[in-house]
Fold Sugar ABC transporter permease.
Amino acid sequence: MSANSPATRIEPRRSGVPYVLIIPAVVALLAGLAYPLVWQFITAFQDYGLAQQFGKPPEWVGFANFANLVLDGEFWAVLGRSLLFCVVTAFATVVIGVLMAVLMNAVGKVARLILQIAMLLAWATPVAAATTVFIWLFDRRRGVVNYLLDLLPGVDMNRYDWLGHPLTFFLVASILIVWMSVPFVSFAVYAGLTQVSDEVMEAAQIDGANAWQRFWRIVTPIIRPVLSIVLLLQLIWDLRVFAQITLLKDAGSKSGDFDLLGTYIYKLGASANDFGVASAVSIVVLIITLAISWAYVRDLIKEDEAQ
């Protein structure tokens, strides 16, 4: 009987050491998140406004805050806008990041080093600084983008206000967020590409597979775990984006048509002092985040059971 047959296969002993090692990280995570999360859950079921900040006991209202959201047309508009924004931006980031990773893997050492340094600089730029640069670029009076587009025959972009119209506002926001997020995806995918065997790729090429077939049928299955996690992270980050939208709104319009979930929650809490409804919206965002994450967690469980 073969040593590799199912009858003689020796199952590896499972140790509890990995679970012990992650206890400090779990404790630190709970210590940092437990109180804010519990307070948020409790406040979502209360009438908590400005008076409560000065000592007045909050009134328990049950699911009234959530019922108000269901009947609030502005909330549904913000929710739909945020979901569309995060999906489009996240997929654009992953696609461009994969292309940049493939480019880094294909070029020589010098060109690769230049690309990596350029992306590291973009990645390391503070959010406020990067957003300010984009505001200058798309400024309606002295912006470089309007100036260059205005040079094209038949194009009139003189004093066009990019941040004054919802469609172009979110286009600028998407470009900004993609520009800042692509380096992370590129480096993660590039690390996965280095694990692809050159011998396998050469054998596939000899068998007649073209570049697209080699990438889709060989490379993609190998880097699929990397693609899954970076897409998941981008969806979560882009759903909760706040700083970039806030800074762009400060330079453009304060209208609610330019709000995403992050700025909408801030407006409800800090501006309107309606912390109960703001907490209810936060719970909705948490539920959406968990729903997005569950697809990835489910795949991990299936892979673990298959091993």
Q: What stands out?
A: The chain has a mean pLDDT of 87. The first strand starts at residue 46 and ends at 47.
